[in-house]
Design goal:
By secondary structure, this protein is of the alpha/beta class. It contains eleven helices and eleven strands. The strands form three sheets. The protein has a five-stranded mixed β-sheet with strand order 7-8-9-10-11, with no helix packed on it. A three-stranded mixed β-sheet has the order 1-2-3. It has a three-stranded mixed β-sheet with strand order 4-5-6. Strand 7 and strand 8 form a beta hairpin. Helix 4 runs antiparallel to helix 6. The two termini are 42 Å apart. The model has no long low-confidence stretch (mean pLDDT 89).
């Protein structure tokens, strides 16, 4: 069964399962999630069990997003959010992303924005139509965190296309009946630095970390040229365990040489990676070292 046939089957199943009176505009694979676009986000918000039951029956992560036609005016929506959320939450910024139908609320106390069992989130969506994403305001203002978050917002259209592409890879039918896993240590074994492990199966290849070996004049990079890892463009995903340069320092180099897939990491790791990699470039330039990539 092709990916499109699988998607059509899921769409038909969703239409069968949801209550009458709810309109489904579209269903898409976006990353690991099945995303339902609807003209009735308020009805989904009113009954939280709908999404829960769909996820249980489909055995997939399900997200609901509003159709762009039903989104309320951002200025009115912002006022409504501030009316509903307690002042103690300490809302510092609200950003609206029409591409995802999502309002991102940055607050000192995210729990007060979410409410007990998500009650405040549902109330807001019922009133404004936008779905809410809540992030914590950094306790110490830092330009790197704001820059990373602003860049993510600016690239929402491209991110959506990437999520769709990755989603279709994730949800495709298996191409092999064989089940084996092989790990290839490209660096970080019997040494400290340049940690990198290639995880291979009949279906995919995933790179876990890609770091540098700081302070070494030779053998600074993992063995990315070996047959198991080549070509880099065929790697399906990269997982970063943490932000230290011996684990994440050469992630940008992968894109320089043809990689075009996702990088999986936590939000704090993402921000720290950006900070450390920019610092690494700066120090390498000052010391006249060879710089493996540009900012």
């Amino acid at each position: 069964m092709s990916v499109q046939e699988t998607l059509n089957e899921i769409r038909d199943r969703i239409i069968e399962e949801i209550p009458n009176g709810i309109t489904i505009s579209d269903v898409e694979f976006e990353g690991p999630e099945v995303v339902i676009y609807t003209e009735d986000p308020r009805k989904f918000a009113k009954d939280g069990d709908i999404v829960r039951e769909l996820a249980k029956k489909l055995r997939k992560r399900v997200t609901v997003r509003p159709n762009v036609k039903v989104l309320s005016d951002p200025e009115k929506a912002e006022r409504k959010i501030k009316d509903i959320v307690p002042d103690d939450a300490g809302i510092s910024n609200i950003y609206f992303d029409s591409e995802f139908g999502e309002a991102t609320v940055e607050a000192e106390k995210p729990g007060l924005v979410i409410g007990k069992y998500g009650s405040t989130l549902r109330e807001i969506t019922e009133n404004i139509g936008w779905t809410l994403k809540v992030i914590r305001k950094p306790p110490i203002e830092t330009p790197i965190v704001q820059s990373v978050r602003q860049y993510i917002r600016a690239q929402s259209e491209e991110r959506k296309e990437i999520l769709k592409r990755v989603g279709r890879k994730i949800h495709r039918e298996p191409t092999s009946e064989e089940e084996w896993v092989r790990t290839t240590h490209l660096g970080g074994s019997r040494e400290v630095g340049r940690s990198s492990i290639l995880l291979s199966t009949p279906e995919s290849r995933v790179l876990v970390d890609c770091g540098i070996k700081p302070g070494s004049d030779q053998n600074q990079t993992p063995y990315l040229h070996i047959p198991e890892a080549y070509p880099i463009s065929d790697i399906d995903a990269v997982v970063v365990t943490h932000a230290h340069l011996d684990h994440s320092g050469l992630i940008p180099l992968l894109y320089k040489y043809g990689y075009d897939g996702p990088v999986y990491c936590t939000a704090p790791t993402r921000d720290l990676m950006a900070l450390l990699q920019l610092d690494y470039i700066d120090i390498a330039a000052r010391e006249s070292d060879r710089i493996p990539y540009n900012s």
